[in-house]
Amino acid sequence: MDVFIKSGNLSSTLEKLCVWEKKLYEEVKDEEKLRVVYDKECKRLKDLVQKGAESSKVEVGSDSVQRLLLKINVTMTAVDAISRRINKLRDEELLPQLSELIQGLIRMWTFMAECHQKQLQDIMEANPHVQVASCGITGDSSLKATLKLEMECLKWAKCFGDWVIAQKSFVKFLNGWLLKCIIQEQEKTPDGIAPFSPGRVGAPDTFIVCKDWYQAVERMSESRVFKAIHDFASRLHQLREKQSEEQQQRIKAEYLFKDYERRVKSFYEERGINWGGNVTAASGVAGLDELDGTIELMKKRLDKQTIRHGEAMKQVNDAASSCLRSGMISIFEALESFCLESLRGYEQIRNPT
Known about the structure:
Blueprint: H1 10-50, H2 55-125, H3 139-179, E1 187-189, E2 192-194, H4 205-219, H5 223-270, H6 288-291, H7 293-347
Antiparallel strand pairs: 1-2
């Protein structure tokens, strides 16, 4: 995917325009200051003539006015030269670079729409069942993985929002700068005042391209994507809560199992019986339940806790399956839609290629 500018460095061109704009500002400011002094000197000279002042004083005043007028003309010449330089940079250097950038972004939106469409298809065809909790998976590793995914989603949402805002801000400021360089005359129509159009007043192509570009990016709405990612992160947070509950149930079951194992082992050792370390088979030994009712009570408690842990694992796995599948589908649907809408907007830009 090639979105690079081949006809020159866009950043360098914008920097040159900024430098020339600063020079233009300084020249215009100097000219305005000279105008103020010039107007005062003209008024002073007029007063001298009307009062019939000595010719020497009138001559000094006239010379001062002429010198100021000469400086004003020099400044205006500089303003005109800098303005032509800016216009040349804008229309012969900046415009081709912007045109190439827009074409590159069109290719980017096309590629991204195809990519997200393929991702959406893969998610929809994938096995919907996800197992994140089982007797062979440690709770800590699963919990940390979910937390990391949640944090990455929040980071993803922020980066996506910043990326879109950066695009919009760039085009907004670029178009705003250009609009300051043109007189925006209001056009009245039977339906009211028509929106300003650079093309109707014969503005150069740069103005038309940036106006269309600004309208295209302003129509881009990232809210659906932003919401889909945040909703997914929120559901991951809820999944973490279920995983935390499952982990607590696991710890309780493991504690009861170890306690039960110690008691059974002690029972056998006291009677000189080789039990073989198989706790599960202990309840099948004749006379075990009758000889030690405490062991039977512990076995019942362990069985109940094992069931509770199994139910907690099922809730985690069901929540993970639903969360990951539906969440990712919503995200990639939103991303595909966003890219296609952006592509349609960019294709409507009157870009002189």
